[in-house]
Amino acid sequence: MAEFTELSRSKSHGGSVVKYRHNSDVLGCAMQFSAFLPPAPGPRPVLFWLSGLTCTEDNFIQKAGALKKAAELGLLLVCPDTSPRGLGIEGEDESWDFGTGAGFYLDATAEKWKRYRMFSYITKELPELVRTHFPVDPARASISGHSMGGLGSLVCALRNPGMFRSISAFAPISNPIQCPWGVKAFTGYLGDNKAAWKDWDPSELAAKYEGPPISILVDQGSEDSFLHQKQLLPEALETAVAGNDRLNLQLRIQDGYDHSYFFIQTFIDGHLEFHARALST
Amino acid sequence: MAEFTELSRSKSHGGSVVKYRHNSDVLGCAMQFSAFLPPAPGPRPVLFWLSGLTCTEDNFIQKAGALKKAAELGLLLVCPDTSPRGLGIEGEDESWDFGTGAGFYLDATAEKWKRYRMFSYITKELPELVRTHFPVDPARASISGHSMGGLGSLVCALRNPGMFRSISAFAPISNPIQCPWGVKAFTGYLGDNKAAWKDWDPSELAAKYEGPPISILVDQGSEDSFLHQKQLLPEALETAVAGNDRLNLQLRIQDGYDHSYFFIQTFIDGHLEFHARALST
After folding, report:
1. For B151-200, how does the pLDDT look when each residue is reduced to its tens digit (9 = 90+)?
2. Of A11, A13, A262, the CB nearest to B17
3. Domains of chain B, each with CATH number or no CATH
4. A71 to chain B: nearest residue by CA?
5. Which keywords label this protein (chains A, B) (predicted)?
6. Taking CB atoms and an 8 Å limit, are A12 and B266 in contact across chains?
7. What pTM was computed for the model?
8. Quick check: ipTM above 0.90?
9. For A237, which DSSP code?
């Protein structure tokens, strides 16, 4: 049995915020994640939250103001870290948008980065840990995330038809093969074969998706500096989904909001309610 | 006119989270504070929040999950830092519970620490800045805080009868002259004359308070390690208030909660509603 340690536990809103550490077979290093265990008894539906560049397992659970509504809805939240850590790869800590804290939720193929396999970690190893250690209903899972984590929520769900009941994102990197962050990361993790990049691009995946119908909720602030820098490109996702009647996208441009957790705080309750509806049956 | 600079602004819950920097005449250094400006128009009531040891102007505004309710109630929040910074006093950065980040909301008398005057900053300079720069109703102010900041909210209000309409605190240091944190801080800031210490002790001040009647709401987690270490001593406050019919204390022991912001998150809405009632007329 792999090591699985509880690092801290705080009561909150009648439930518990708990941080865990475990040895990841997929990534080959110790990993941490945070969870919110709601007070409701019995097998709970689970929402996976994927954070953005530079974040850890702490950001969402501390700053999103999501726990009151999650307790009320009986949603179990799982918030993993954003990359492997401490693998000792040359240059892993040099950039804030590549390497440590910037795993991009893909499985790298470049030899140097081959242990960066956050996609497999999020979609295989982590759900298995959750099923083993928590009172969840494995048939009821949804996924959400912010920025790079919004990319992750879309990629993980669209590549695994049927695994998640609903998808949401705040300011997702929607078309990484066309933006500076994505080109840098994909060049590093996947190499120069751009045809392979499309397998990790939410808009490319949305155009080709052939799984069961699924709803996607996206909030995007109009004053998000990364939107203006064309890192996010939500219009590409909108165009891709328009051509695929298996996907139902609600893209809301929120006037005056930026890229911060103050934006996420404002709309998180609506996302939790969106997922709870999809998870209720 | 003193320098007063807006450092950042994010829209949240229809209002704005803003961080400011200004030169403090009282403290003799640059100071920062955060504010939440609710969407409601017109002169707003204001709630001052005082944070605990090691905190800055960021902790509450980022982690308390208070903004949704503050927006709904139309409360303007002001969250100052916890000490002067960068004064260059020998030893100011050596302890986490004394010096930088640990001003204890008093006016120091020891020569070495004479620029540590957080009490005057919070009760004179900061309210004046707030009145000058924000659409507040100066007659409607309340005060709250956490741990050392709970001590601060009680001391600032009890020493200034009529300045605040209501007082609340999460896990306040209620009787510092009897606990290790308080004895260390008061010895440093005030010297060895223990008679003078009583002027900065919430329980001592509560026993002697002769101002207009005022209500105090205190939440205390039963699993707070600092409660068990006898740093907080809420029973001393309870005893002092029991002998003073001008003070109405509701002390709630919250079963299973600790000292963290996950505890504050759980009960903050009730504190904001408590203050909004006192500020509504």
Report:
1. 999 999 999 999 999 999 999 999 999 999 999 999 999 999 999 999 99
2. A262
3. 4-278 (3.40.50.1820)
4. B266
5. Cytoplasm, Hydrolase, Serine esterase
6. yes
7. 0.96
8. yes
9. H
